[in-house]
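FAQ: What does the model actually see?

It sees only this:
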Amino acid sequence: MSEVLVLVEQQDGVVKKVTGELLTLARSLGTPSAVWVGPGYGDAAAAALAEFGAATVYVAGDASFADHPVAPKSDVLAQLVSEKAPCAVLVASTADGKEAAGRLAVRTNSGVITDAVAVSADLIATQSVFGGSTVVHSQVTSGTPIFTVRPNSVAPEAATGAAVRVDVTVALSASTTKAKVIGRTAAVKGGRPELAEAAIVVSGGRGVGSAEGFGVIEGLADALHAAVGASRAATDAGWYPHQYQVGQTGKTVSPQLYIANGISGAIQHRAGMQTSKTIVVVNKDPEAPIFELADYAVVGDLFQVVPQLTEEISKRA
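And it is asked to produce this:
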């Protein structure tokens, strides 16, 4: 079977959940080969990649790669595409991932499909477009097919692989080194999962009413070990930080469970969450457009419904 290159998403040497999803998808397309760019590759990372079937791990571990944002990833991938002639390249649909995929497409004169939610064995991608109103099937017709895949679109399934390490040496191009990282500030993280990768997301919108009102949203999220999201209306009002915005101009999520509280369901928000597997809506307006997407709907005041739900979940924990 032909190789499928999977760009590893990692932070400080820890492999992110979406990489397991990509390797699972890659196994249905060919022989999965992981591509690690930058320092930090070790036994724990190797075990994580082997767990989901990586047959080979190409390691471009030069420490200097971390000094330049995103571009080294496309240089490494471009060299591997040239040398290995893979049948496809899979990248996570993150901001960095989509930039790397776009750069790679230009470097290799290949087609790229972004925000896929599925890729079939014959390399036809499924996408949700026009704010979620249309589902299309797309295929790359030139070069090596490059796909960026939304996190949580594929259920990760373990299948032990050899994860044979192959070191790769790549000379970075002059254009790659023009941008340089001159400082880093560690993000302060809480105990909740990352929004884009969370299996459960609890979101609040205009109906929450205030920054203090998000306390009930956070309470439910913590009971479910979920991430917290917010609509654009809530973030624009200053009730919740913008990095938690779900929507067309925020983050796109595709969790197993999405709970929307006090969100009307404008097309901007729907575009960012409508591929969620199960959608629960709590809204006191029975005519709210978001009810069209709901698998389970509650017409009621979120400040009465959500605390009761949190209490019941806590009892069963």
